[in-house]
Amino acid sequence: MIDRYLTPEMKTLWSEAYKYGCWLKVELEAVRAWTELGEVPQEAYQDLLEKSQSDPLDEAFAARVAEIEAVTRHDIVAFTRALTERYGENARYIHLGLTSTDVVDTALNLQLDAALEHILADVTVLRDTCQEQAVRYKHTPCIGRTHGIHAEPMTFGLKFLNWMSTLGRDLERLRAARGRIQVVMLSGSVGTYAHVNPEVEAKVAQGLGWRTAEISNQTLARDRHAEVLSALAILGTTLEKIAVEIRHLQRSEVREAMEPFEIGQKGSSSMPHKKNPIQTENVTGMARVLRGNLQVALENVALWHERDISHSSAERVILPDSTALASFAARRLGRVLANLVVFPDRMLENTNALHGLIYSQRVLHAMLEHGNLSREDAYDLVQRSSLKCWESGEHFRTVLEADVEMPLSSEELDAAFSLEWYLREVDVIFGRFGL
Q: Closest Cα partner for 20 from 110, 118, 115?
């Protein structure tokens, strides 16, 4: 995990101390449940609860667990022994009837849940930024491109509106994935509840405000975690889609928009004139990592029999990294879009760069409406004029008017070469979103 990508909040929730705090939260909920079932003295639970509140687990505790684990080679055993040292004899009621993974997997879900809460907030801000920019540039004409080639006019606001819509679906996927890991598993060594009353699991779930897993073995099924990584990877593709568009628009030959360039910022160690799209290039790279981590999560789903630990070492990397990168990338891209430098005049210049060729479909339809030519003959006439325009650099209308078979009048050509005609339904599209 790369610390530079972590917010203070994200860094805290993936720290060892926070992890052990989650473990303790699960353990104390289980003690509470056993107490309500009459298996643990009320005063013992109260003592543990008060000590946990007055003496919360910190980095010193994490260091002590590490010292013990160096001997035991078992993290939960080291954890419970460190708790005994810290909280005294009533700590013997901790981990009653449970197996390690009961605690580790349920607590891991607490960490993931907290991480997803941050990511949802970051993506919501990004979506809202796209909405603001969509409205701002709602009627700013630009050229639409297909296959990288000028196609037909559109508006710059439509790009943002499309991104806003996609991010809305990303938020839905993230919420669904978050719900999938908001489950408690306390079912014992192979999921049979042989040593732990199922009511303990139910009471712990109730205390956390979550659900119980319908069934488990000794691990919580990893398709749940894969769904989280899938939602993050798909979010990454959205962020990359936006980033790639900004990178293209910043190219010297295009120069319709560019990342903000801060005072004192340098673009190149050798070429002082450079302004490079480094932030969106970073986002593109991070999206690749998110997709790669999804592959690991998918491979973690298939474990031997009721449990092995081949998944756990990988999760210690991919879960903190993916959540941290998704949060960082969303926030970085949000800052880029909020402060994007836009060149409307350049957009209009590029729209006119092909000397009217972008109006070819409208000319074709006008000829068909005129009724004198078949579709095939009209298409051939427009295409040969277009190809001549490509080669000669003449204006498309000039070439068309020179063709002896051209049936359209000057007034009809005026209408066919209208930029406003192409943008007349923009308000309708925005209206679908209440904008």
A: 110
Whether the CB-CB separation of 62 and 16 falls below 8 Å is answered with: yes
Mode of pairing for the β-strands spanning 257-258 and 211-212: unpaired
Q: Which of 187, 248, 252, 268 is the catalytic position?
A: 268
CB-based contact 332:326 (threshold 8 Å): no
pTM of the model: 0.93
Phi and psi dihedrals of 266, rounded to 5?
Answer: -120, 140
166 in the same domain as 298: yes
Flag whether 421 is in a domain: no
Burial of 324 per CB tally in 10 Å (0-12, 13-18, 19+)? buried
Active-site pick, 15, 52, 74, 147: 147
| DSSP assignments along 9-67, one per residue | HHHHHTSHHHHHHHHHHHHHHHHHHHHHTTSS-HHHHHHHHHHHHHS---HHHHHHHHH
pLDDT at residue number 2: 59
Q: What are phi and psi of 240, to 5 degrees?
A: -70, -40
Residues 74 and 44 grouped into a single domain: yes
pLDDT tens per residue across span 45-96: 999 999 999 999 999 999 999 999 999 999 999 999 999 999 999 999 999 9
Point out which residues pair with 258 in neighbouring strands: 341
Mean pLDDT over the full length of the chain: 93
Helix (H) or strand (E) holding 341: strand 341-342
Q: Is the pLDDT of residue 269 over 70?
A: no
Count of domains forming the chain: 3
Pairing of strands 183-184, 211-212: parallel
Q: Is 147 one of the catalytic residues? A: yes
- Give strand pairing partners of 155: 141
Active site residue 268: yes
